[in-house]
């Protein structure tokens, strides 16, 4: 083999070990015995030590210096291996190992504290996580902005300042539209109870309807829905509430968007740096367009209305039009994952500002709950009355995902751009969605975006698929048009 081939063989083994680490994380949130948390922390630390050593090996630097890429795909492979190497050598091996151990243990402690509504039980381990992440961020930043270095892990080529500018541009329009909507009467609401077994049966049908390949995936339950894996093994989770089946169905569609992206990447890139979603913002563009622009459209909800009636019988909604309004109700609420499209980004803006302050040292962990509650009341107009509705609702900080949250809103922005282009190229899409056929939309996304994996930068990936550079304008236009129509503004 030549040097390039030798490096790629080495990288495939590294990628395979990374997939094993991901499977341990999946198991921890779905099937692991409750008492296994401490041992799992040691297991995660051990595999992270192996991965860090491989990613930061001096041999990788020698191969990178000597390797000649055979084509543009090879050039992209070298670019991503180099990016990983340069990041890894900045982080001390012991720090990487400690982070893996502490975040694995913190995940279980967060779940227990959330169930008991006990912030105090979680704060000591969160303090450890924050201290370690600050240390890692300082190592990665090498004198630059710590939070920018963290964002780079999830949305390369984007800074916190650029994200803040996008949020500042979006906030006035979102707040104004929300005020006009909340002045209107609420739509009809679901009535009755929706058995868990029936929900899970329908949610698996929904996953298949959106093109999720169950021969290379599975649907399980977790406290916080997520997707895991890439290539030939891509798993998703959801959650159920007997009072609110939409929680289950739209969590599933959202995670299917993530899963379908990973399943749609060219098999030529399997177990290489290009064989996964290029960034979390682009990943979120897929989950959000599946969930919202497709899954919450009037056309698709007319089909889902019939499926729900067949599954549950009468549930208090008179017709498909009323069901469309119920699916898209703008309502007061605390939980980000249950938020309507209009208010979702306001939840992200709150978290973005708080975690920037945490990483900068301007906000200490002991003051987080009060800061969250004060900010929530200022942004939404009512108080948080229990931690599971406030600072304990998300898993992200417990597992050290600082810099991740803003990618949810970037994903919404990207989805707006993609939806505008997709609708222009598929004028008959609604007629298909009315029959539960999403294939034109999902095939368009696979062809124009998903198959390319990490071949290009996030911004190039969106620009090539959408036909224009990313901008919040299409999203804001879509929201204004949709909710003006829904609420007769």
UniProtKB/TrEMBL annotation:
Catalytic activity line of the entry: Release of a C-terminal amino acid with broad specificity, except for -Pro
MF terms (GO), sorted A to Z: carboxypeptidase activity
Top class in the EC scheme: hydrolase
InterPro entries: Peptidase_M32_Taq
Pfam (any one): Peptidase_M32
Database matches in PROSITE patterns: PEPTIDASE_M32
Name assigned to this protein: Metal-dependent carboxypeptidase
